[in-house]
Design a protein that fits this description.
alpha/beta, binds tryptophanyl-5'AMP, two-stranded antiparallel sheet, about 400 residues, 9 strands
Length: about 400
């Protein structure tokens, strides 16, 4: 690949590379920018503007205003998000999940979480199904470690729970032509059939609440913008099937520790996984791409560039909660008052402190994981349907 091709922006559900231009994505994907008005509207229910909104990490949406209008009229919504278990969870994945938890607490609403072991199997020639399924249960521990409660959080493991999803997946698949799917996802003659059918399965949790409870309410999906193509096709057919169009709120990508793109599990040296040991975290951060100058003397004199620095982005996204302290770090960086080594050391300490706690909670989650399985809800709803 030439340098130019490497830099070119590619954002699909399966690949993100190059310098991501978020304004261009809003235009090309046809989403709406998340305005100050909407941020304030959300704050009315949640009691303040969340860090991820203040810092514009969530930057775009579809129908968030519609969902809030309905909410004002007494129609609640459910939350839906998910994970494709291709390896361990990295800290970028936590970004939309932390926000989802915040919305769930504020609106006291149900979350459906889809673990797509089937997707990760069909999109990768080398993968073995039992491996992605096993990773799914491991990845679910990370979700639980963030503090979700089983009473309103329901994890769907696709392969195990496909009987629950299949009728809706068929209804969806029947209404989407191959030509639409090809135009949306770039499918080719060589794409396998499993992959081509797959988007119908990712659509299902947008609608499953009605099947399980009889209640027809919209779903709101917090996720990074790479997942948006799924919602485009799902929104097109939702009303034909008698559902609300699913709404979205999109976040930016936490970058990897290298140059450009997003944190990506397939580049393990530039990703921080939630299961990484402290020494490994230190090593990865030590090698991170920053906006620093070639020599200490130069940097002291001219300052560095926090806007291109990956280390600064980690403070911005997750590891500096205090806006004033973040602004001060930026100022000192630009003035040459702080060196990259100082920021890296600081970040390593914070990441390792966070991970030590997270890893403890993650281990504890093993004993309660079963309580989050959607099967328990489905079993009740099957009984109710059979009794009718
Ligand atoms: P997956 O496993 O690629 O990603 C899980 C979630 O993390 C988001 N994400 C990121 N957010 C910030 N910074 C990053 N570097 C970063 N990398 C990934 C993704 O947008 C996603 O929200 N097909 C999906 C699984 C899925 C799903 C869903 C995701 C099924 N249903 C509904 C979101 C909503 C997948 O492979 O996600």
């Amino acid at each position: 690949m030439t340098g130019e091709e490497k830099n070119e922006m590619v954002v699909t559900p399966w690949e993100v590379r190059g310098k991501v231009d978020y304004e261009r994505l809003i235009r090309e994907f046809g989403t709406e920018p998340l305005t100050e008005d909407l941020r304030q509207r959300l704050a009315k229910y949640t009691g303040g503007v969340h860090l991820q909104l203040r810092r514009e990490l969530f930057f775009s949406h579809r129908d968030l205003d519609v969902v809030l209008d309905l909410y004002d009229k007494g129609i609640k919504f459910v939350l839906y998000t998910g994970r494709g278990p291709s390896g361990p969870v990295h800290i970028g994945h936590l970004v939309p999940w932390i926000f989802t938890k915040y919305l769930q607490d504020a609106f006291d609403t149900r979350l459906y979480f889809q673990m797509t072991d089937d997707e990760k199997f069909v999109v990768d020639d080398e993968r073995i199904l039992s491996e992605t399924t096993k990773l799914g249960y491991e990845n679910a521990l990370d979700l639980v470690a963030l503090g979700f409660e089983p009473k309103n959080t329901f994890i769907i493991y696709d392969v195990e729970d496909i009987d629950m999803l299949y009728d809706i997946a068929l209804e969806v698949a029947k209404r989407i032509t191959f030509s639409t799917a090809r135009a949306t996802f770039g499918f080719q003659d060589s794409t396998n059939l499993g992959w081509i059918f797959w988007p119908a399965v990712q659509a299902v949790p947008c609608f499953i609440h009605k099947k399980l409870t009889g209640e027809n309410v919209p779903a709101l999906i917090p996720a990074a913008i790479d997942q948006d193509p799924y919602w485009r096709i799902t929104r097109d057919i939702a009303q034909k099937l008698g559902y609300y169009k699913p709404a979205q709120i999109h976040n930016r990508f936490l970058p990897g520790l290298g140059v450009g793109g997003k944190m990506n599990a397939s580049e393990p040296e530039t990703a921080i996984f939630t299961t990484d040991e402290p020494e490994l975290v230190k090593q990865k951060i030590w090698k991170a791409f920053t906006g620093g100058k070639g020599t200490v003397a130069e940097q002291r004199k001219e300052g560095a560039d926090p806007d291109i620095c990956t280390v600064f982005q980690y403070f911005l996204y997750l590891f500096e909660q205090d806006d004033k302290k973040l602004a001060e770090r930026k100022r000192r960086c630009k003035a040459g008052d702080v060196l990259c080594g100082d920021c890296k050391k600081d970040l390593s300490e914070r990441v390792n402190k966070f991970l030590a706690e997270h890893q403890k909670k993650r281990e504890k989650a093993r004993s309660v994981l079963e309580k989050f399985h959607i099967r328990r809800l489905y079993a009740t709803s099957i009984c109710q349907r059979r009794e009718k």
